[in-house]
Design a protein that fits this description.
The protein has about 280 residues and is α+β, with helices and mostly antiparallel strands. The chain has two domains: about 1-145, Fructose-1,6-Bisphosphatase, subunit A, domain 1 (Fructose-1,6-Bisphosphatase, Chain A, domain 1, 2-Layer Sandwich), CATH 3.30.540.10; about 160-275, 3-Layer(aba) Sandwich (D-Maltodextrin-Binding Protein, domain 2). It has helices spanning about 1-25, 45-60, 90-95, 185-195, 205-210, 215-220, 255-260; strands at about 35, 40, 65, 80-85, 100-105, 110-120, 125-130, 140-145, 145, 160-165, 180, 200, 225, 250, 275.
Length: about 280
């Protein structure tokens, strides 16, 4: 099993470095079109999606793949890779240097390994979260191979919480921290994982937005509040996740839940599930 995790990590390093270097050539040089769900896509997204799917099939032929641009139905295979070829397409097209390649590895529907690479800023995160899966292997979360941990701080005007565009209505109320909006779900969750922010509120991400970030956040000591009546994980084989949202609240530690959960009530269903 140790060799397997070594293979998984090396695959992600080599593949995202290669794909990321080519994407840098298209940064701020391509135009986006709008998909039926309202999100944006470019020729660079489609190219990266194809390259990443092909690489998975070459290195892990028995594994399934679920991606933003093509494959939305979770396969029945025990292992499945969930890929967002460019998380932050709007930033990518407009010349804003916060965008990344997000990869999550599922085992029986549970995200157990995450890898998020931001080519423009040269930041690469990875992490493991094997709890309740029966798997053995590495633990923890890392930024450029240095261990990272979530913050233990309490909210104050000197701390930061990240919002998504669809949660901006929360600005009408008094928030306990300063606010940042990057437009990139994986980046927001990584900011919690590395201790830069205390929380990230994501009103409607898809599974490819969070599958790679989730194990890193959890491996760094964070918690994940799924703001939906249904459980976030495990995912269900055969289900189409193309239109399924994962409204969520990522927090640095569980003591923040009673502070932030009431604040997000205007944008969430009446029931929620805590993970971690």
């Amino acid at each position: 099993m140790i060799y397997f995790w070594y293979q998984v990590y090396n695959f992600c390093v080599q593949t995202t470095q290669r794909v990321g270097e080519i994407l840098l050539r298209d940064f701020a040089r391509v135009e986006a079109s709008r998909k039926p769900d309202g999100s944006l896509v470019t020729k660079a997204d489609k190219w990266a999606d194809e390259e990443l799917r092909r690489a998975v099939k070459q290195c892990f032929p028995t594994h399934g793949v679920l991606t933003e641009e093509t494959e939305h139905i979770l396969p029945t295979s025990e292992w499945c890779w969930v890929i967002d070829p460019i998380d932050g397409t709007t930033n990518f097209t407009r010349g804003i240097p916060i965008w990344g390649i997000s990869i999550g590895l599922l085992y029986r529907g549970m995200p157990v390994f995450g890898f998020v690479h931001f080519p423009q800023t040269r930041q690469t995160y990875h992490g493991y979260y094997l709890a309740n899966t029966g798997l053995t292997g590495p633990k923890g979360a890392y930024l450029n191979n240095t261990p990272i941990y979530t913050s233990s701080a309490s909210p104050s005007p000197n701390h930061v919480v990240a919002l998504c565009n669809r949660s901006l209505a929360l600005l009408k109320q008094q928030l306990p921290c300063k606010v940042r909006v990057t437009g990139v779900t994986s980046y927001d969750l990584m900011s919690v994982a590395c201790g830069a922010t205390l929380g990230a509120i994501e009103a409607s991400p898809k599974i490819w937005d969070i599958a790679g970030a989730y194990p890193i956040l959890m491996g760094a000591g964070g918690c994940f509040l799924h703001l939906s009546p249904d459980s976030a994980f495990p995912l269900i084989p055969g289900k189409d996740y193309g239109s399924v949202g994962f409204p969520s609240l990522a927090l640095a530690h569980e003591n923040l839940i009673p502070i932030f959960k009431p604040l997000v009530a205007p944008i969430i269903p009446p029931k929620s599930v805590v993970v971690g």
